[in-house]
């Protein structure tokens, strides 16, 4: 039962265009949601009016807004998946048999609590791996937005 709900939830958080978990989700007038970059790329060479990639309803290209609720749900889903993955044996510290939940920014590796306090890593910058994952996702989104702006400038 729980797995059925999880699969339905995953389906709703999947972009119809790239078939991956939504990144910077936007919802258009017909109610369908897509990754911002996927939607822009799908409309790149199309003249107005563009259509929804799913239902083909016409949509005037105007400023797209991030769907904040979907973005939060995607974030929750990613954190849940991360926690599930971290609980697996492959993320256990070989030395201490504890789950690695800390990211060492200097060495760019995952550590358990005991390793993060060790002499080798004591002076390094550490953060919870959830924060490191969110930070990395934010960087990728900013890079995508910057690239999209450059594409738009080049087209003009």
Note the run of SSEs as H and E. HEEHEEHEEHEH
The number of helical segments is 5
Cα-atom radius of gyration: 20 Å
Distance between the termini: 52 Å
Strand percent estimate: 5-15%
Given the C-alpha coordinates, what overall shape results?
elongated
Helix content: 40-55%
Stretches where pLDDT falls below 50 for ≥5 residues? none
Number of strands: 7
Supply the helix-strand structural class: alpha+beta
Kindly state the mean pLDDT as a whole number? 82
Strand order of the largest sheet: 6-5-7
Largest sheet: 3 strands, antiparallel
How would you characterize the overall build of this protein?
The protein has 156 residues and is of the alpha+beta class. Helix content is 44%, strand content 12%. It contains five helices and seven strands. The protein has helices at residues 2-12, 36-42, 68-86, 113-116, 129-155; strands at 25-27, 33-35, 50-51, 58-59, 102-104, 109-111, 126-128. The strands form three sheets. The chain has a three-stranded antiparallel sheet with strand order 6-5-7. Strands 1-2 form a two-stranded antiparallel ribbon. It has a two-stranded antiparallel ribbon with strand order 3-4. The mean pLDDT is 82.
How would you briefly describe this protein structure?
Helices cover 44% and strands 12% of the residues. With 156 residues, the protein is an alpha+beta fold.
